[in-house]
Write a structure and sequence with these properties.
This protein is of the alpha/beta class and 267 residues long. It folds into two domains: 15-125, Translation factors (Elongation Factor Tu (Ef-tu), domain 3); 137-260, Rossmann fold, CATH 3.40.50.80. It is 22% helix and 31% strand. The protein has a six-stranded antiparallel sheet with strand order 4-3-6-1-2-5. β7, α3 (146-158) and β8 (165-171) form a beta-alpha-beta unit. α3 runs parallel beside α4. The radius of gyration is 18 Å and the shape is globular. The structure holds flavin-adenine dinucleotide. Flavin-adenine dinucleotide binds at residues 2-3, 67, 79-82, 96-98, 100-106, 126, 144, 147, 259, 261-267. One of its GO terms (molecular function) is 2 iron, 2 sulfur cluster binding. Keywords: 2Fe-2S, Iron, Iron-sulfur, Metal-binding, Monooxygenase, Oxidoreductase. Its EC number is 1.14.13.2. Its cofactor is FAD. Residues 30-131 form the FAD-binding FR-type domain.
């Protein structure tokens, strides 16, 4: 739905979406923003951090967990990326971007885009956000899927939240893990935050953490997830595997929220 465009007038029944009126009309707040590239960082061999400085308007109000659409220069195409900064940093847009082979935005980050360049951004979009409840939270991130959770967790830390959160972070090799310092800092501020990184392809001699597919690691570490809220972000195959697993482990389907990082470009 989030990537679809109506080709004609249509009637959409949203009564089953379980949204408050505020959440529903939140969609009306989407704006167009002019930004300047402030920083491009190599986080892993195939993941880049991109910081955009908001220029006009100079701030964007958003909810932790949402995403933006970034326009490809000289085109009317956009690419969706989740915000990794908390809403308290409304003057910037921090994105964490997987360098898909042949990806048009990825190519821009490979030397074509420079500090000071202009990018147009549309947003905020999406319904992913920490739902109010007393339930403990499990978050499952694959690759660049850590982005929305960095935003959500930073906001929880700013709120001095005591809600237990377990963050699973799936990567192939140790060199694919990133933001570890930021997560360690979040753990200092939020003692109820447990962090479980998992490597699926390689087990270095000095690795004492979990190994295997992140979904298998979730099942091994937390075999009973009844009474939890679950949030997922990352590649569609990970989401497809994780949702039925979470239901099997006891999470109610209505308490599972996810953003599948569906690619926009053609195959
Ligand atoms: C709500 C939402 C939030 C998102 N947030 C993020 C985010 O925070 N970070 C992020 O990195 N992505 C995110 N995505 C995904 C991102 O929008 C797409 O991957 C986008 O297509 C990337 O743009 P691009 O121009 O680099 O690649 P495109 O020009 O769109 O090309 C993608 C190409 O890569 C191919 N491809 C797809 N997967 C693979 C693969 N595993 N290996 C090889 N080729 C592949 C596709 O078939 C296509 O040809 C999000 C998507 C959605 C819907």
């Amino acid at each position: 739905m989030c990537s679809s465009v109506p080709v004609d007038d249509c009637l959409v029944d949203v009564s089953g979406m379980d949204l408050t009126e505020d959440e529903f009309f939140g969609g009306d707040q989407i704006g167009a923003y002019l930004t300047l590239v402030e920083k491009i960082e190599e986080l892993t061999p195939d993941i880049r951090g991109l910081r955009l400085r908001l220029v006009d308007p100079p701030n964007m109000k958003f909810v932790a967990g949402q995403f933006v659409n970034v326009e490809l220069p000289d085109s009317d195409e956009v690419r969706s990326f989740s915000l990794a900064n908390p809403p308290s940093r409304s003057d910037v847009i921090d994105l964490i971007i997987k360098m898909l082979p042949g990806g048009r935005f990825a190519q821009l980050l490979n030397g074509q885009l420079s500090v000071g360049d202009k990018l147009r951004v549309y947003g905020p979009l999406g319904q992913m956000k920490v739902r109010l409840s007393h339930r403990p939270i499990v978050m499952i991130a694959g690759g660049s899927g850590l982005a929305p959770f960095l935003s959500m967790l930073t906001e929880l830390a700013e709120q001095n939240s005591e809600r237990p959160v377990t963050l699973f972070f799936g990567a192939r090799r140790a060199e694919d893990l990133y933001a570890l310092d930021r997560i360690a800092e979040l753990q200092r501020r939020m003692p109820a935050l447990r962090f479980i990184p998992a490597l699926s392809e390689e087990r270095p001699a000095d690795w004492h953490g979990e190994t295997g597919l992140v979904t298998d690691v979730v099942a091994r570490c937390m075999p009973d997830l009844s009474g939890h809220d679950a949030y997922l972000a990352g590649p569609p195959p990970m989401i497809d595997a994780a949702v039925p697993l979470l239901v099997k482990l006891g999470v109610r389907e209505r308490n599972i929220h996810f953003d599948a990082f569906v690619p926009s470009g053609g195959a």
